[in-house]
Amino acid sequence: MMKSPNDSAVTMTEIVLPQHTNALGTIFGGTVMSWIDIAGAISAGKHARCNVVTASIDALHFIAPIKLGHFVEIKACVNATGKTSMEVGVRVDSEHPHTGEKFHNVSAYLTFVAIGSDGKPQLIPSIEPKTDSEKRRFQAASMRRASRVKLAHELKQEELRIKP
Ligand SMILES: CC(C)(COP(=O)(O)OP(=O)(O)OC[C@H]1O[C@@H](n2cnc3c(N)ncnc32)[C@H](O)[C@@H]1OP(=O)(O)O)[C@@H](O)C(=O)NCCC(=O)NCCS
């Protein structure tokens, strides 16, 4: 069965409260990472329709700080699928509560794995990118996966080379 990235689209809204901030009055990185993981897991769960676990985070870029009192929008959708794993792209934007001025704060790419009732990775539906931006995100996700697999292979070879 094929699914569209739209089937896994998630938007979560939060507000930055004092308990979310660091000494500078901007959001603590771990808080926003937790929101990213939750939005990503919901998106992966909507695609796979079973339990999912976070396998890895390929990239997480803090582009601009998020300020106390600002509204935060966390958007996620599945960019690409493997057999049992899927890459979810997450974008975090914030908004000044009074002026409505918007900021792009974080972009992140996470891999989730679908887990069956036997506790093992389970096959998932494939994704079918249709629009130009879905195709671009699919292509970029494939490049990140290829680069992750290549790096893991090279590290393994290096480990074998230096082993006594
Ligand atoms: C993620 C996990 C299920 C993978 O298990 P595994 O036995 O290594 O699975 P496999 O080697 O059969 O790989 C299954 C899929 O996961 C992918 N995968 C495994 N480790 C990965 C990693 N570190 N990063 C990205 N993808 C990974 C594989 O590429 C494969 O994808 P595919 O089926 O689409 O080709 C396992 O490592 C695990 O349970 N990790 C802990 C997860 C966790 O606790 N997360 C935090 C709380 S949710």
| Helix/strand order | EEHEEEEEH
Kindly report the name of the CATH homologous superfamily. Answer: Hotdog Thioesterase
Number of strands: 7
The small-molecule ligands in this entry are: coenzyme A
Q: What is the CATH class?
A: Alpha Beta
Percentage of residues in helical conformation: 25-40%
CATH topology: Thiol Ester Dehydrase, Chain A
* Count of distinct structural domains: 1
Structural class assignment: alpha+beta
Strand order across the largest sheet: 2-4-5-6-3
Give Rg in angstroms: 18 Å
**Major β-sheet, in short?**
5 strands, antiparallel
Mean pLDDT: 96
Number of helices: 2
Condensed summary:
Helix content is 31%, strand content 35%. With 164 residues, it is of the alpha+beta class.
